[in-house]
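Quick entry, no commentary yet.
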Amino acid sequence: MKCVRLSDVESSPSGMPCSSREGDHAAGIVRKVLLGEHELPGSVRLSHALLAPGQSVAEHSHDDLFEVFYVLGGQGVLMVNGQSLAIAAGSCFVVEPGELHALGNDGSGDLTLIYFGLFA
């Protein structure tokens, strides 16, 4: 068994990817990796992210990865293949391999979410 507390995990440095699989599309976002690459079979990582008002994750895609997101708090907008979707606390969504996606905080408070990747 493994137990990880968010308060015990250091944030990744601003502008630095959380793993070798992440590029600079999420520069400046406060991210904490709760479970790292290869800690679960077929999984990339489980992470917590905080986007301040106005922050966004640039459009990008993953050829071999599903990404699953759950919004813990705040509101924002998800763009997938040019389509916009409003997201808020309680929203859960999956981005499939090859889909161009971006995420932004268009609210007045922080947008917090957890996300993980699964190999296709």
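second:
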Amino acid sequence: MKSRKLIFAFVFFVLGFLLTFSYQYTKSKNEVTQLSEKDWEQDYYYRQQLIELEDKNKQLRNELANIRQEIQTQEQELANEADVLKDLVDQKLNLQKLVGELSVSGDGG
């Protein structure tokens, strides 16, 4: 029982020390740095430039996504047209064979 009281006393002593040290440290470091008007203006200018660049970046990313979508759509259309063209060529060859414009080789039984 006495060892438990001793442990509590030690823990509270260390806790009090940490709180005191933390309070003193933040009190000494709580100095407000004063910036000159020139520094404020420069900081504001750079922040505005950053905001503008981020907006421009967003617009360009959107534009790039739209262009990629258009390219993908056109590629799909070209692939479909190529399939249709191949089918038309095959159909033409078959019709030419039927009307005798192309010679047909084989057993012909």
